[in-house]
Amino acid sequence: MEKNLTHIALFAALIAVLGLVPKIDLAAGVPITAQSMGIMLCGTVLGAKRGALAVLLFLVVGLIVPVFPGFTTTWQKIQSPSIGYVVGFPIAAFVAGLITQNTRLALFPAAFAGALIGGIAVLYAFGIPGMAIMLDKPLPDMAIAAAAFLPGDLIKAVLAALITKSIAQMRPEALLSRG
C-alpha cells in the first residue's frame, strides 16, 4: 500500500515537473507541453488504476497550487480551451495502463500502443470537443487545428514506451503496469 501511494505521488509530481518545460502556444489557445507524456507514463508504468489515481492527485493538487505551464491552476485550465484535455487526462492514463498491462505484446510495443491509444486517441477524443465548445468553433476545424499536436505527441509516445522499457530493465519492481 505504501509503495503504491509513493508511486502515485511521485508520478503526480512528475506531471507537474513536466509542466515546467517551456510550452509552445498554438493559435487555438491550447499549448504544446511535455505534461501529456507524463499522462502516458502514469498509465504505462503504474498501470490503469494507479496511473489514473496519479493524474487525479495531480489535478486535485492543481486546484490550489499552479501545476500547469504558465503557473496556472486546474481551475484556470477548466475555464480555457484546454478543458477537454484536462478532463481526459485521467481517462487517458487509465486506458494507456489498461492496454500496457493487458496486452500480450512485449513491453515496448505494449507501452507504445497504450501511449498511442490512451495518450493520444483518448486525449484527443476529449480535447478536440473541449476546444470546439470553448472557442465556439466547428468540431472539424478544431480537429484540423489539433493535428499540430500530432508530431510531438507521437514523439512523446515513443519516449514513454522507451522510458517504460528502461524502467523495467533497470528496476523491474518499479514497473507496476506488468506486475
TrEMBL record:
Listed InterPro entries: BioY
Membrane topology: Multi-pass membrane protein
Organism: Cypionkella sinensis
Assigned protein family: Belongs to the BioY family.
Spans traversing the lipid bilayer: 51-71, 83-100, 106-127
Gene3D superfamilies linked to this entry: 1.10.1760.20
Subcellular location: Cell membrane
Main subcellular localisation: membrane
Keywords: Cell membrane, Membrane, Transmembrane, Transmembrane helix, Transport
Protein biosynthesis is among the record's keywords: no
Protein name, as recorded: Biotin transporter
